[in-house]
Write a structure and sequence with these properties.
The complex is a heterodimer. By secondary structure, chain A is of the alpha+beta class. Chain A contains three helices and five strands; from the N terminus they run E-E-H-E-H-H-E-E. Helix content of chain A is about 15%, strand content about 20%. Chain A has a five-stranded mixed β-sheet with strand order 2-1-5-3-4. The chains are: A alpha+beta, B alpha/beta.
Chain lengths: ~110, ~450
C-alpha cells in the first residue's frame, strides 16, 4: 500500500498507509490527522482539505481542475503547489508522496 | 456569550475506576460553569454526534464519552446516500466518517444498534431500551430527524421507500435498475438528487411535487426554474401542483393516483417530502421544543447540562439577526459539534456562515447563507452556460448565494457574509471583474 507523509503546520510528521483508489484527503481523515477538516467529505464543495504538495511530487499529482482552482483562489495562504486533497487520487505512483498542511482550513 | 469567561479548569482528583490506567486526574474532567464534567453522553451517532465526540477528545477532554446510536454502523456521511452511494460509486466503508476502530482507540464507548428511551433530568441519567441506565454530567442530543411519512393510503406497500439511512438505500437498490419506472414524490434536494442518479442509471423518472415549482422551500423561482429545465432536458417528467392521493398495488406498489384522477405507473416509489426533527426524548424530559429543540447560540438547551445539535435543534443565527433556525445540513452538524464541544471545554469558537451543497448530473450547487427573507436577486453569469450564481439581498445587503458550477462565487459570498461585507447587486453582475477582486475590494 502506498505511504503518504503529512506534515502538520507545526512540523509534526505522520506517515500513513493510503489505499489505492481513495484520496489523499480520505487517508488523512480516516487516521484522524489534525489539519485536514474535509467538511464536505470529498465532494469538492468546501475547500477545507487544502494541502501543499511537496514540489518534488507536484508533477505526479497533476494539476488542479478549473473547479478546484476556483476554490483554491479563496483558500488561505495559497502557494504554487496548493491542492484540495480530496481531488488527489492515490495510485501506486504516489507511494512516498509528501504533503504539508496549512495553518488553518477556515 | 456566557462561556467566554469559563476556563478549562482543574477538577479535584476524582476519577472512575476501570479506566485504562490511572491517568492524570486533572484532565479527566472539565468544569463548565459551576459543574464538573466527567461523563458525557451523546444520543445520536450521526455526523453531529460523531463529530462532537471526536472534538471533545481532540480538545483535550479525557473523561468518559458514550456515543449512542440506533443504526448498526458507526457515524457515517449521509450526503452521498442520495448521490454516490445510491449510484454504487461509494461503498459503506468509504462512507464511515472514521474507521470503527478509532472509537475504542480514543476511549469513546460507541453503542450502536442502541436506543435511548428515557432521560431523567433530576438524577442526570439516560435509560436505554432493555433497562440499562447511564449517568451523565453533560448530555448532547444529536438525535437527527426522520423522514416525514407519506400520509396516504398505500404508503406501507413494498416498493415505497424513504431515503435517510444506508439501510434505506440498500432496500431501494435491487429495484433501482435501468428501465424501471421510478416515481419520486417531492422535488426537494433529495428528490432531485435521486432523480438525477436515476436518469444516469437509465431509469424512467417522474417527479410529483405538490408545489408549483421544485425546490420551493429552499431556493428562488429563478434557480428552481433552472433546475426544472435541466431535469426536463435530462428526461425527467414533472407533475407540478400534483397531489398524490393513493398508492396502488396489492403487496407491491404499482403506481399512484393523483388528486385529479390521473394515474402514474411505478415500479418503485421514493418519497422525499421533508423530515421531522427527532424530539421525542427532548419533549419527554420537558425541554423547550418548537421547530426542533431550542438552544442558545452555544447549543445549550434550557437545561444547562443538556445540549442539542444537528438536524434536531434550532439555534440563533448570528448573521441573521439571531433568529432561531433549524438547519438540515452537514455544515450545521459540524458547526453544532464544534460549538457544543467548545462550550463543554470552556473554549471559544468562531461562528461560520451556514452553507450547503447538492450534486445533480454535472451540476455542483453550492449555497452559502440563508436566503429566506431576500427582497432582491442578482444573477452573475449565464444560466444557459450552466455556470452562474444567484446572489440574494435584503435591503441591499448580501445574505446568501446559490452558485451553480461557480465555486469561486460560492466561497467569495461565504467570505463576504462571514465578514458582514457586501457588494452592490449592480456591481456583482459585472463578469469582467473577477470574484476574487470584488471580494478583496469589498473589504477595503
Amino acid at each position: 500500500m502506498p505511504k503518504i507523509t503529512y506534515i502538520e503546520h507545526t512540523g509534526k510528521e505522520h506517515v500513513v498507509d493510503a489505499p489505492v483508489g481513495q484520496t489523499v484527503m480520505e487517508a488523512a481523515v480516516k487516521h484522524a490527522l489534525p489539519g485536514i477538516d474535509a467538511d464536505c467529505g470529498g465532494a469538492c464543495a468546501c475547500a477545507t482539505c487544502h494541502v501543499y504538495v511537496d514540489p518534488d511530487w507536484a508533477s505526479k499529482t497533476g494539476e488542479a481542475s478549473s473547479m478546484e482552482q476556483s476554490m483554491l483562489d479563496f483558500a488561505n495562504d495559497v502557494e504554487d503547489t496548493s491542492r484540495l486533497s480530496c481531488q488527489i487520487k492515490i495510485s501506486a505512483d504516489l507511494d512516498g508522496l509528501v504533503v504539508r498542511l496549512p495553518k488553518s482550513q477556515h | 456569550m456566557r462561556s467566554r469567561g469559563e476556563k478549562l479548569a482543574q477538577c479535584p482528583g476524582r476519577f472512575k475506576a476501570g479506566l485504562r490506567q490511572p491517568a492524570i486526574p486533572s484532565k479527566h474532567c472539565v468544569r463548565m460553569g459551576a459543574n464538573e464534567i466527567r461523563r458525557v453522553i451523546i444520543i445520536g451517532a450521526g455526523q453531529a454526534g460523531g463529530e462532537v465526540a471526536q472534538r471533545l477528545r481532540q480538545g483535550g477532554f479525557e473523561g468518559d464519552i458514550t456515543l449512542i446510536g440506533e443504526e448498526p454502523a458507526p457515524p457515517y456521511q449521509r450526503p452521498p446516500l442520495s448521490k454516490k452511494y445510491l449510484s454504487g460509486d461509494l461503498d459503506m466503508d468509504r462512507l464511515l466518517l472514521r474507521p470503527a476502530t478509532v472509537y475504542s482507540d480514543e476511549r469513546i464507548a460507541l453503542l450502536t444498534g442502541t436506543r435511548a428511551v428515557w432521560i431523567d433530568r433530576a438524577n442526570m441519567r439516560v435509560r436505554l431500551e432493555g433497562g440499562r441506565e447511564l449517568g451523565f454530567d453533560a448530555l448532547v442530543l444529536a438525535t437527527g430527524a426522520r423522514p416525514r411519512p407519506l400520509p396516504i393510503v398505500g404508503a406501507d406497500l413494498d416498493g415505497v421507500h424513504v431515503l435517510r439511512t444506508a439501510a434505506d438505500v440498500d432496500a431501494i437498490r435491487p429495484r433501482f435498475v435501468s428501465g424501471a419506472k421510478l416515481l419520486v414524490i417531492g422535488a426537494g434536494y433529495i428528490g432531485l438528487e435521486v432523480a438525477a442518479v436515476a436518469r444516469q442509471s437509465g431509469l424512467d423518472v417522474t417527479v410529483v411535487e405538490a408545489a408549483v415549482r421544485p425546490l420551493a422551500r429552499v431556493t428562488s423561482p429563478e434557480v428552481a426554474g433552472f433546475f426544472l429545465d435541466e431535469h426536463t432536458r435530462q428526461g425527467v417528467r414533472f407533475v407540478l401542483g400534483g397531489q398524490a392521493t393513493v398508492i396502488k398495488g396489492r403487496t407491491h406498489a404499482t403506481g399512484i393516483v393523483l388528486a385529479d384522477g390521473t394515474e402514474v405507473p411505478a415500479d418503485l416509489v421514493i418519497a422525499g417530502i421533508g423530515v421531522v426533527p427527532e424530539v421525542t426524548l427532548a419533549r419527554q424530559c420537558g425541554l423547550t421544543v418548537e421547530n426542533g429543540i431550542v438552544t442558545d447560540a452555544r447549543c445549550r438547551t434550557d437545561d444547562p447540562a443538556i445540549f442539542a445539535i444537528g438536524d434536531c435543534a434550532g439555534r440563533p443565527m448570528a448573521q441573521y439577526g439571531n433568529r432561531v433556525q433549524r438547519l438540515e445540513s452537514v455544515h450545521n452538524a459540524i458547526e453544532g459539534a464544534k460549538l457544543c464541544a467548545a462550550t463543554i471545554l470552556g473554549q471559544d469558537q468562531a461562528i461560520e456562515t451556514p452553507w450547503f451543497w447538492s450534486d445533480q448530473y454535472d451540476l455542483k450547487l453550492q449555497i452559502a447563507g440563508l436566503f429566506q427573507d431576500y427582497d432582491h436577486v442578482a444573477i452573475r453569469g449565464d444560466m444557459a452556460e450552466r455556470a452562474f450564481a444567484a446572489f440574494y439581498y435584503k435591503e441591499r445587503r448580501l445574505i446568501a448565494v446559490d452558485a451553480v458550477n461557480r465555486p469561486g462565487e460560492f466561497l467569495g459570498a461565504k467570505t463576504l457574509i462571514q465578514r458582514g461585507h457586501t457588494i452592490a447587486p449592480e456591481t456583482i453582475i459585472d463578469m469582467s471583474r473577477p470574484m476574487k477582486d470584488l471580494v478583496a475590494a469589498a473589504g477595503q
